[in-house]
Amino acid sequence: MIDLVIDEVRFSNGTVGAIAVDGGRIVETGEGPFPAARETVAGHGLTALAGVIDSHVHFNEPGRTEWEGVETGSRAAAAGGVTLFADMPLNSDPPLLTPEAFHAKLTAYEGRASVDYAFWGGLTPQSLPHMDELAGLGVMGFKAFLCNSGIPEFAAADDATLLRGMETAARLGLPVGVHAENDAITLALTEATRAAHSVADARAFLASRPIVAEAEAVARALLLAEETGCRLHVVHASCARAVELVLDARLRGVDATVETCGHYLHFCDADVARIGTAAKCAPPIRSVDEREALWRFLAGGEIDFVASDHSPAPPEMKLKSDFLSAWGGINGVSFTLPILLSGAATREMAVERAEEALSAAAARRYGFAGKGRIAPGYDADIVLVAMEQRYQPTAETLETRHRVCPYLGETFTARVARTILRGRTVWADGRVQSAPSGRFVRPATTGGPQ
């Protein structure tokens, strides 16, 4: 007798069948018949996708758990169909720059995460001497800010630091992820905006972080990656120009990938003005034309995958009349899947392509063995989705620590019905269904156990 059968479910390619699970792994898919199971989940009317891999969240554990924390953040991830997330090295305190900080973070996570998790290490002047050790401990890559991070403990990577860090990362076989904005441009424009406005509104803030600041930093990072042979990943691309630069570099042989985020695909600059600082982020949300260009790149496979860049903060930091002084981060870990499937339905983007961008592409890029597909031998990380089911999230339905969120009241047409982690239901019926069972996942490229 096996552990679980999910029957009569639709797959992303449109076929209908079943999934058999035993020992936490998928053992068979198709029409069956399968052996008797201890548990059967009715999949009729639902679509089964590989569990979402959100490779870009800020849960701020340890040290700033009042902003989010692993318990609330991972519950919100499960509510969004996420079965594996990657926590950034900031805004935890201390940031993950040393082996000591890694162990403190791992200790804080153990036994408290509802789904699986991985860690980014930081690339700053302070972390350069520790990169080898961090790789051995199992970080999935190294994150660098090419501008002020907003966190004093996490310094920006100057060009010399970025070059040295990329050389080390290339030797270690791990990617470098870059937050790409030109610091000099954004600082000068922000200071000019502050001088011109006693209270800066949405339009003034958006103008202070233009596309050229993002494009210049992407181009610089790509050049250094080309010189060093580093595997580069451009995080949260907000505009077509950033994607085009990555595509051009690929033609030259640069090993570069790019992600965008749900908020860049769902909102436009007019929405930022309408919603207020709950929709403030950096790089900022762009125009309708830029949004639709991102959708075209995503549908065509030029954008590799989508992450949430979940980065909430307490309401007193977020809800301010002055856009420049409000915290810049989106509460979004629960919404990447609904955004992609709802938007894909109106743009003739295949569900298979959405599944690729939500799961498989990130698993490949970061070496998460056994993750990202519904296939025999893979972990039974599965999300069951009610397609064409309209809903509007409310503050009461959020699992995050704070309820400031730009998606409240927005309409989606795909809803997570059940999230399954290694064959065990962790989310269903609008609530968490089991005690935390998430495990630390290290990339296969570093060796060591999965």
Keywords:
450 residues, alpha/beta, Urease, subunit C, domain 1, 2 domains, six-stranded parallel sheet, five-stranded antiparallel sheet
Blueprint (SSEs and pairs):
Elements: E1 2-10, E2 16-22, E3 25-30, E4 37-42, E5 47-50, E6 52-57, H1 70-79, E7 82-87, H2 99-109, E8 116-119, E9 121-122, H3 131-137, E10 142-145, H4 159-172, E11 176-179, H5 183-196, H6 202-207, H7 211-228, E12 232-234, H8 240-251, E13 256-261, H9 262-266, H10 269-275, H11 288-299, E14 305-307, H12 315-318, H13 336-347, H14 351-366, E15 382-391, E16 412-421, E17 424-428, E18 431-432
Parallel strand pairs: 1-4, 6-7, 7-8, 9-10, 10-11, 11-12, 12-13, 13-14
Antiparallel strand pairs: 1-2, 2-3, 5-15, 15-16, 16-17, 17-18
Helix pairs in contact: 4-7, 7-8
